[in-house]
Structures are given as structure tokens and as C-alpha cells.
Amino acid sequence: MSVIKPFNGIVYNPLKAGDMNKIVCPPYDVISPEHEANLKKRSPYNFIHVMLAKADAKHADDDARYAKAGETYQKWLQDGILVRDEKPCIYYTKQEYKVTGQRYSRMGFLAVMKIEDEKAKIHPHEKTHAGAKEDRFKLWTALKAACSPIFVCFSDRQKRVESIFQRKVAPLKPFVDVIEDDGTRNMAWRLDDPALIQEIVDTFDNQNLFIADGHHRYEVSKRYREMMLEKTPDATGDEPWNYVMTYFTNVDSKDLQIFPIHRIVKSFPKDIKFLEDLFRIDTIKKREDLVVMIAKAGRNEHAFGLYTKKGIQLLRLKNKSQIDEFIKEGSKDYRSLDSLILKAFVFDKLGIKSEDITYCNKEMDDCFKAVDQGQADAAFILNPVRIEQLRLIALNGEKMPPKTTYFYPKALSGVTLYDLDTL
Predict the structure, then answer these.
(1) From CA 68, how far away is CA 213, in angstroms rounded?
(2) What is the gyration radius of the CA atoms in the chain, in angstroms?
(3) Residues 174, 272: one domain?
(4) Which of 10, 5, 39, 4 is nearest to 22 (CA)?
(5) Is residue 138 in a domain?
(6) What pLDDT sits at residue 387?
(7) For position 55, what pLDDT does the model report?
(8) What is the pLDDT of residue 399?
(9) CA angle 85-178-154, nearest 5°?
(10) Are residues 136 and 252 in the same domain?
(11) Total domains present in the chain
């Protein structure tokens, strides 16, 4: 049985739903309350109305918001706002974006991936939270559909998948072409040619696949499958709930970006001399120099930026041999994670709990702002996890702590949905 296969996506009908720029949205877990309110105002058909439905007069109980989401989803199907594609497709996507002024273009595609297939070597790399999994499970159960893909990296060094895209797909007009608020352009195309689809499927033979994002959704898909197996004693293994909707991109591509997730600490000592026993400390005058200096230092050592009201310091770990003394669990690859080293060498020593830390990704200025405005005493700036680190830790069967990696850009929600009940 194949690791991946095409599916009949449920997609928006722009003739009834209107401007696609007003309809699609980012994954639910990166949307702030302010952004959520803005998205809901853009269109009554913005996908946020399903993905983050809220309680109302009819659905007063907090859990009833899932029933509300299900009712909204079914009405959109009945009214033709959402329609099912007639042919099973693989959905190619392309995202054009900028990071620090440099242009990138990441190609990927949407398909469905077999859950717990022995031939599919699927490696998660990050731990999950029970609350988030329960929330998404209730939503998927109400919808009987998966509304957002998980994000998986595969290897395509011969660029077979990219070649099909360039030759057969890219010259066609995309059915989705939208620009996000941060300027990222997202395009999507259907590929329904069985021969070309088979070429893509064959690329996945004996592959190690790495879950980059959507670990909670992957766990939810496994739980949903277990629930359906209990109800279906004569299951064939090919029912739709045996698969999870997945966005795939090439792990070998230079356009695959991982951002660090920085730490903002509410209460932190004003005197940082205690850090001198463990770190070499240098003062940095300009904020714009910090990322460059951390990256340079991080090539050969563990380095962090520290921002307080007193200014910016670059911290470089003095003695790597102390890592094994401070961090007992995990492999050497796992113990080399900067987020773990920061926790063990600084936060644990000071008794700083996880609830006293907030997280900031992509926008480092938000870290500075939190300190400048008195919302926090300190911000720690980290280097990103390298792809090779992720690969090694996942292959070891280990999982990083939550809030360790931030893949950018995210796969949009609302481009396709996956019906879990209909073949």
C-alpha cells in the first residue's frame, strides 16, 4: 500500500464565496486574538468561522462551539460555498516570500499520508500538549473532516517532484492565488494526471519522513483513526480516516526556512554577573548586529542574545563538557539543542518556570518591545535549529520540547479540506 495518495479535496467555490484573499487564513495556532477578529470581519466565509468557531446565544456552552463549526461547515457544503473536486488530485503549492530582504520560493504539495503504515517511516520531532489535541479532536469529530494539513519534509535530491511541477503544472493558472498579510504569496494548482501522480507516489518508497509542523494534528488523526477502527470491525485499511491530509516539501531545498523561537522572561535578576561562571559575555551596541553575531558564534559554540533594560549581551557557553553534567536525558544530538541548554544552564538554576516564559517567533522586535514597555525583564534570542539536527533527533526516536522550531511560511488553512468519512 502506498505511503501517500491523491484525494478529492473540498475547496472553496470562488463564484459563491468571493475573493479568496478574504477567505483563507493561517493555521489556528499562530493567529492572535486581534488577527482572529480581523479575519472574521473580512468575510462571512473566512475559514476562521469554522476553524475557530466561538460560542454564541444558540451555542452557549463553550464546547458547543464545535457543533456550531459543524453546522457552519455543512451549510457551506449545502449552499455550494464549498465543493468537492470530482477527481482525486495532488495539489501543488508555491509560496513566495522574503526573509531579511532575501527572496525565497518554496514549492510543495498536498496529498494524504497513510497513518501508522509500517512502510512509512514517519518521524515526529516535537512533544505535544494534551489541551491542543483535545480541542482539534473535538473539531474534527464535529466536522468529520480535517481542516488543516500537517507539514512533512521528504527528500527529493533528484528533484523529480519539482520537475513535474515545472514542466506540467507551473505554466497553468492556479486555482488559488492569494497574498497574506505579511506579504507571502500563496498559489495552488490541481494535478489529476494518474501517471504523473504515480511518479510522485513512487518517490516516497522507503523514505524517512519528518513531521515539521502539525504534531498535534497528527496525534489527532491517529486518535480519530483509533475511534473509527473500534466502530468498523471490517475495516479494509483504505478508509479515508486511515490517512492524514499532509503538506509535503523537500527537506533538501534551500527555500525551507526554520526560525528560532525566542524566550521572553517576566522576572529576571538585574545583576547578571552570576552568568559569568558559565558564559563569555560581550556587550553589543546595535540591535541589528545581534542576529549576525549570534549566527556567527553559533557555528562552533552555543550562543544566546540577552536583552534587558541595561542593553544587549552576547552569551557564549564556556565549557561544552558541562552539558552532560547539566542535561542528563537524551542523545548527544538532543542535548545539543540550544533551547535545552538555555533552560538547564539559566532558567533551571534561577527557578524560572515555564509559565513565567512567553515565546516569540520570527519578529525579534517583539522581544525588545516587551522589555522596553516593562512587560518583561529579559528576552533571550536564540539561533534556529538546523535541519540536520531535526533529522538526527527524529531518527533517534526523540522529540524536542515544545516551542523549539518554527517553520516558515506556514501552510495556509482553507486551500483544501479532507473528508474523513467519504471515499
Answers:
(1) 27
(2) 23
(3) no
(4) 39
(5) yes
(6) 86
(7) 59
(8) 83
(9) 70
(10) yes
(11) 2
**245 and 112 within one domain:** yes
Same domain assignment for residues 150 and 217: yes
Q: Is residue 192 part of a domain?
A: yes
List, run by run, the mean pLDDT of 10-residue segments along the chain (423 residues). 87 96 90 91 96 68 85 96 97 93 93 76 76 90 94 91 96 96 95 97 89 89 94 92 96 87 94 91 91 91 95 94 90 93 93 90 85 95 90 85 86 95 68
Residues 145, 115, single domain; the answer is yes
pLDDT at 391: 85
Which three cell numbers, joined as nine digits, stand for 241? 480516516
* pTM for the model: 0.89
Predicted pLDDT at 175? 97
For 268, the grid coordinates are: 529576571
111 and 235 co-located in one domain? yes
Is 397 part of any domain? no
Enclosing domain of residue 172: 4-10+85-257+408-419
3-class secondary structure for the chain?
Answer: CCCEECECCEEECHHHHCCHHHCCECCHHHCCHHHHHHHHHHCCCCCHHHHCCCCCCCCCCCCHHHHHHHHHHHHHHHCCCEEECCCCEEEEEEEEEEECCEEEEEEEEEEEEECCCCCCEEECCECCCHHHHHHHHHHHHHHCEECCCEEEEECCCCCHHHHHHHHHHCCCCCCEEEECCCCCEEEEEEECCHHHHHHHHHCCCCCEEEEEECHHHHHHHHHHHHHHHHHCCCCCCCCHHHEEEEEEEECCCCCCEEECEEEEECCCCCCCHHHHHCEEEEEECCHHHHHHHHHHHCCCCCEEEEEECCEEEEEEECCHHHHHHHCCCCCHHHHCCHHHHHHHHHHHHHCCCHHHEEEEECCHHHHHHHHHCCCCCEEEECCCCCHHHHHHHHHCCCCECCCCCEEECCCCECCCEEECCCC
Q: What pLDDT score was predicted for residue 213?
A: 86
Residue 72 CA to residue 139 CA, distance in Å, equals 12
Tell me: do 101 and 116 sit in the same domain: yes
In a domain, 75, yes or no: no
Alpha carbon distance 8, 245 (integer Å): 11
- On whether both 91 and 223 belong to a single domain, the answer is yes
Which of left, alpha, beta for 311 (phi over 0: left; psi -120 to 50: alpha)? left
